[in-house]
Design goal:
Layout lengths: L6 E5 L9 H15 L3 E6 L12 E4 L2 E4 L2 E7 L4 H10 L3 E4 L4 H12 L4 E4 L17 H12 L4 E4 L2 H9 L6 E3 L16 H6 L8 E5 L8 H13 L5 E5 L5 H7 L4 E4 L3 H9 L3 E4 L8 H8 L4 E4 L4 H4 L6 E4 L4 H13 L1 H15 L4 H26 L1
Parallel strand pairs: 1-2, 1-6, 2-3, 6-7, 7-8, 8-9, 10-11, 10-13, 11-12, 13-14, 14-15
Antiparallel strand pairs: 4-5
Helix pairs in contact: 1-14, 7-12, 10-13
Length: about 400
């Protein structure tokens, strides 16, 4: 069997209506598969004005806006219309990418037709509750996720560190790595543009500490703010630049009144903005890979990150940046202070990170998913033949 023989039904809770790292990876995967001659049909909620143009054919799944986070939609059901479309498409493998109700119904639909199911795991959903004073729910959510993932033939995770977490949580025992790549045409140290930086109100000196990502509390905005407060109390010269938008922007601006918020940046503009930082501070523990970390490394920046899934597989401590115990404000501040005051160390660790980023090629990475589809189809066929 070849990649061109694949017919993939891909289920996503957010394929393109809000931009994030997970759906950027899914769209790149679909583009690669289509380029290899495979057939792909995407099933996802849609909106009138999505964040970006979807790659491939998208079938709308009934959904409703999530209370308190209306920019996101919750898939409702695998409707009769969607089921008819699925039957007509006749996939030979099903891929789910979010643990919602429609994904669970899609798994059941596939099982009834003896089709293999792959689940890609993009986010540590169970950790989100820590940021909303609901840590008590974490074990319940973990059990809820386990019931779904154990029904899948295999999982793919974006990093080995996260795959190990999934094994320890007994989510599944067939877990491949679907890493992430970086577009070197967009993200590289040559994109640095001090004139653009000055136009944003950011001076050439002192050092610029950057935040990159969607502005939501689960990205560690509180930890970022607390560490910057400590740095100011120590009278360490620095500037802060924030790239991104989100519902917590007002809160973040009130906590960082001296920071420059440059808003959402995309494509070449994003590469330029990242390269105009001097280091990235990424305190999030919810990432399963850390696209923003890789993008910063590709731009030649050292990274101070939480020692958590994702970052652990990218940042080499004391070589390309620092890995700090999650929530350890003093240690985060210590690391930031060292980078702010030691230009040689910044340059050395930044160069090492840029070299490390060269290992991440999108085509090779996406082929591993295609190979996993093929393996699961063959295994399912072999079991069926054995049963006969």
């Amino acid at each position: 069997m070849q990649t061109s023989d694949l017919r993939i039904a891909l289920f996503s809770g957010n394929y393109n209506y809000v931009r994030d790292g997970a759906n950027q990876a899914l769209n790149r995967l679909v583009g690669y598969l289509l380029g290899q001659g495979a057939s792909v049909r995407v099933y996802s909620p849609t909106v009138a004005k999505p964040a970006f143009v979807a790659t491939g054919d998208v079938v709308n799944v009934p959904s409703f806006a999530i209370p308190f986070r209306p920019e996101y939609r919750l898939p409702l059901s695998l409707s009769a219309k969607v089921k008819r479309d699925l039957e007509a498409f006749a996939p030979n493998v099903v891929h789910i990418s979010s643990p919602d109700r429609v994904a669970r119904q899609a798994v059941k639909w596939a099982q009834q037709r003896n089709l293999p199911v792959l689940s890609s795991v993009h986010t540590r959903f169970e950790t989100y509750f820590r940021y909303y004073n609901m840590s008590f729910a974490e074990p319940l959510v973990e059990a809820w996720l386990r019931r779904l993932y154990r029904q899948c033939d295999a999982l793919v995770a974006p990093s080995e560190s996260f795959a190990q977490v999934l094994r320890e949580q007994r989510m599944n025992y067939d877990i491949d790595i679907w890493s992430r790549g970086v577009d070197r045409d967009i993200f590289n140290s040559g994109r640095r543009d001090l004139a653009w930086r000055r136009a944003q109100g950011v001076t050439d000196e002192p050092v610029v500490i950057g935040f990159l990502g969607r502005l939501v509390m689960e990205k560690g905005l509180d930890v970022f703010s607390d560490a910057i407060d400590q740095l100011r109390r120590r009278n360490v010269p620095h500037q802060v630049m924030v790239i991104g938008e989100g519902p917590a922007r007002g809160w973040f601006e009130s906590r960082l009144p001296h920071a420059r918020f440059v808003g959402f940046q995309g494509g070449q503009d994003l590469g330029r903005a990242v390269a105009c930082m001097d280091l990235l501070f990424n305190p999030s523990v919810t990432e399963t890979f850390g696209n923003v970390t890789l993008e910063a490394m590709a731009c030649g920046l050292p990274v101070v990150a939480a020692k958590a899934t994702g970052s652990e597989s990218l940042v080499q401590d004391n070589v390309t940046g620092r890995l700090i115990t999650p929530g350890a404000i003093q240690k985060f501040t210590d690391s930031l202070q060292v980078y702010c005051t030691d230009a040689d160390l910044r340059a050395r660790h930044g160069a090492a990170g840029e070299q490390r980023s060269l290992d991440f090629s999108w085509d090779a990475i996406n082929q591993t998913v295609a190979d996993t589809y093929i393996r699961l189809i063959r295994q399912r066929a072999a079991r069926a033949a054995s049963a006969r």
